[in-house]
Amino acid sequence: MSVESGTEWETVRRILTESGDTWAIVGLSTNRARAAYGVAATLQRFGKRIVPVHPKAETVHGERGYASLADIPFPVDVVDVFVNSGLAGAVADEAVAIGAKAVWFQLDVIDDEAYARTREAGVDMVMDRCPAIEIPKLS
Description:
- The chain is α/β, with parallel strands linked by helices.
- It is globular and about 35 Å long.
- It starts with 6 loop residues before the first helix and ends in a 5-residue tail after the last helix.
- Helix content is 35%, strand content 15%.
- The protein has a five-stranded parallel β-sheet with strand order 2-1-3-4-5, with helices on both faces.
- The longest helix has 13 residues, at 85-97.
- The protein has helices spanning 7-18, 35-45, 85-97, 112-120, 131-134; strands at residues 22-26, 49-53, 78-81, 102-105, 124-126.
């Protein structure tokens, strides 16, 4: 089945176009060699506000960073997860707890149990995909 014709693509499209423009990027730091750095820049170019979430709480791409999702003092629409699969489930649970509308697990980040929990909570989720690859397909 083509991705574009599947229900997964509909979820991708909905997250990118309807869930809101404030994206917390978990794992984003000032390290330019990491994928999160480039993906965050792409999201900004497409009009998304990025919020770096990393233990160092660094400012990245001009946006103040926070040590955890719980530390962010304003609503977050989407939580984009750049941590390994073993840690990702806890991040998805935190995203649900803070009231995020969607959770996005990056390429190679897979946790089927976290996916099921997140969807059961009524939160949109995709995993093993990259918004920087998907968002240009919308135009």
